[in-house]
Design goal:
The complex is a heterodimer. Chain A is mainly alpha-helical. Chain A is built from four helices and no strands. Chain A is elongated, with a radius of gyration of 25 Å. The longest helix of chain B is centred in the first third of the chain and has 32 residues. Helices cover 76% and strands 2% of the residues of chain B. The chains are: A mainly alpha, B mainly alpha. Chains A and B meet through helix 2, helix 3 and helix 4 of A and helix 6, helix 7 and helix 18 of B.
């Protein structure tokens, strides 16, 4: 069981990272979803694999029996899935919006934030002595 | 108990009420400013309660830690909460200035208070999974705030910000999972108790590096800072100010909390890493600032540069260094947010953020010039302003810990900071105005809303600068209680020995 899960996590991470490197934004987003699933599996694996008994205390007993599943990772994953879903939907909406604005989902076409305004570059004509010093 | 929860309840309440008052913008603003003021008041009371080094703990639903959710406020948390409250108050007043109506219609108020909820939550979180959840609350609100005006630049900057932060928080989550697998607990106090006893210290250190990567992306450490200057300058000015002041500092807070509490026993491994990261962050940030000619981008690169000073505290992990880092954080949040507020006012007075198009403000707006000069000189570390004491404390802590090169880099970067501040001063205030400037008309209310927070933050900077002693003493207490891990463990877990051994 453990090697299979480890391989699955490794595979998901490598596919996810490969897709992060794409130019195409929807692919990047799918890469994030895959990567997030790998992380969820990691958390699941961190709380023991192979335990199948539900974590209930038997009547009359004080502690859990040996071999019960660990409920905390499952609770953590549930939270993480909900949060990850919200983030993914937001990012997806942003991609949709970017598509409407730039008519492209290619990361190379989005350059509005880093293009310097003409005057934001080094001031050209020295209109006062102070400019020379600043240049 | 109620006092500990108050920094969470107030922004939550404000976010809910302002969301309900969708169309009533005037009512939203009253609720917003009122909530920010009460947040400041509540967190100042927390500072008073923790100033002697005591640690306040609230167990949610009376489930004892480490099984329940614990909210912990020590002196460091309280200081961060107080400064967050001050920022919330100044920014929510400033946000009533120019362009307020459009911003409020787009949902500024609910998002802003959700952001404050996330920030305050991160400061009071007593376990690392809750820290993750509060990070996400903060992140989603900040996504919304960043693209508030829906311009092309904002959507582009927003995409960069969103994708990098998605990866950063996912790495955080993975590290949380692995840490749980390794130590079987997520509560900070419990982690601090069992971390030195763990058998596989190598694996623990690897998990620590994952935390370093994800918090480093959040705090814009070298080499993970590129998203910050690409995104922050696109936001509208009140949003940029609160981001610049608070968001990166939450990452710094998380680094300090985790590495001073859980990884303190491994300082031999992490210390040099932090030292190099701090030096590179300072140097590369300030070079970026020296190269740019847009006010907002210069200031964005300065955020990066200044984070390095705070990380020196984690690198050395002595009481003096952490106290210096805390003093620096407080000073930096006030000053940096103020500079962004001033940049917004420069845009209003001059019609542009581009330095080439600015000019002559010393003559037309002398009050604004003074409002710029105080935080700018403070950022560069000119005495007697707050930045001088912050830098002095950092450099002295570096020399005391015999990290002379680190102290030298800090001094050198201070000089370059002064250079780029003088650049803004020369271009925007000193040189003659180019003919193209087109000032936008102010109403009286807008002018007051813009200038009052600038004056308030200037006064805070001056107060810290001229009356440093109580602030330094408070930072010293916070550093001492941050390093006193036994006190933290006892405060949260009660009788530490009673926790039975837990199998992961």
């Amino acid at each position: 069981m453990d090697p299979i899960v480890a391989l699955a996590i490794g595979g998901l991470v490598s596919v996810g990272v490969y897709m992060f490197l794409a130019h195409d934004l929807p692919r990047v987003l799918i890469g994030f979803v895959l990567f997030g699933s790998a992380v969820n599996l990691t958390i699941f694996a961190s709380g023991r694999l192979g335990a199948t008994l539900p974590p209930f205390v038997a009547p009359g007993a004080d502690v859990l029996e040996a071999g019960t599943a660990n409920p905390l990772p499952q609770a953590l994953i549930l939270t993480a899935i909900v949060i990850g879903f919200g983030l993914t939907v937001f990012a997806l909406m942003l991609v949709v919006r970017a598509n409407a604005e730039f008519h492209s989902v290619d990361a190379a076409d989005l350059d509005a934030a880093e293009t310097p305004i003409e005057a934001a570059k080094k001031p050209a004509a020295p209109s006062a002595p102070a400019v020379k010093r600043a240049a | 108990m109620l006092l500990i929860v108050a920094p969470l309840l107030i922004p939550l309440f404000a976010a809910a009420v302002t969301a309900l008052l969708r169309t009533r913008i005037a009512a939203q603003r009253i609720v917003g400013v009122g909530a920010s003021a009460s947040l400041l008041a509540a967190s100042l009371m927390l500072v008073v309660h923790t100033a002697d080094g005591s640690i306040l703990v609230a167990q949610m639903g009376d489930w004892p830690a480490p099984f329940g959710i614990a909210l912990v406020v020590d002196a460091f948390s309280a200081i961060m909460l107080a400064i967050a409250g001050l920022m919330a108050l100044s920014v929510s007043i400033y946000a009533m200035g120019p362009d307020a109506a459009a911003r409020d219609r787009a949902g500024f108020q609910p998002l802003f208070h959700s952001l404050m909820l996330g920030v305050c939550g991160a400061f009071v979180a007593g376990d690392i999974f809750n820290l993750y959840v509060w990070f996400e609350v903060m992140l989603i609100a900040s996504f919304g705030l960043l693209v508030l005006d829906r311009t092309r630049a904002q959507i582009d900057g927003g995409l960069r910000y969103v994708f990098l932060n998605l990866v950063g928080t996912t790495v955080f989550l993975m590290a949380v999972g692995l840490l749980y697998g390794q130590l079987g607990t997520l509560n900070f106090a419990d982690l601090a108790r069992v971390a030195p006893l763990a058998e596989n210290q190598g694996l623990l250190a690897a998990i620590g590096v994952m935390f370093l990567v994800s918090f480093g992306a959040k705090a814009a450490l070298f080499p993970l800072f590129n998203w910050l200057p690409a995104a922050y300058h696109t936001a509208s000015m009140p949003v940029a100010a609160i981001f610049a002041g608070l968001l990166t500092k939450v990452g710094v807070y998380a680094i300090l909390r985790l590495f001073a509490l859980v990884y303190a026993h491994d300082v031999a491994f992490f210390g040099p890493i932090f030292a190099w990261v701090a030096a590179a962050t300072m140097v590369f940030g300030v070079f970026g600032a020296a190269a740019h000619y847009d006010i907002r981008r210069i200031l964005s690169f300065h955020i990066v540069s200044q984070i390095g000073y705070m990380i020196i505290g984690v690198a050395l992990l002595t009481q003096a260094a952490i106290a210096a880092a805390i003093l620096y954080i407080v000073h930096h949040i006030v000053v940096k947010a103020n500079l962004f507020l001033v940049a917004g006012a420069i845009r209003r007075e001059n019609g542009s953020f581009a330095l080439g198009r600015c000019g002559g403000l010393w003559r037309t707006a002398p009050l604004l010039a003074i409002g710029f000069l105080i935080p700018a000189l403070s950022l560069a570390g000119i005495p007697p302003l707050s930045g001088f004491w912050g830098k002095y404390a950092v450099v002295r802590a570096g020399i005391e810990a015999e990290a002379y090169w680190l102290a030298g880099v800090a001094l050198f970067v201070g000089l370059l900071t002064l250079y780029s501040m003088i650049k803004i001063w020369n271009e925007a205030f000193w040189k003659a105005a180019p003919e193209a400037t087109a000032p936008i008309a102010w109403t009286r209310g807008e002018r007051i809303a813009t200038y009052f927070p600038i004056a308030l933050l200037c006064a805070t900077t001056m107060t810290i600068g001229l009356w440093t002693e109580p602030f330094a003493a408070l930072a010293e207490t916070a550093a001492a209680s941050l390093l006193d891990r036994d006190a933290y463990i006892t405060a949260v877990l009660g009788n530490a020995g009673q926790i039975a051994e837990k199998a992961p």
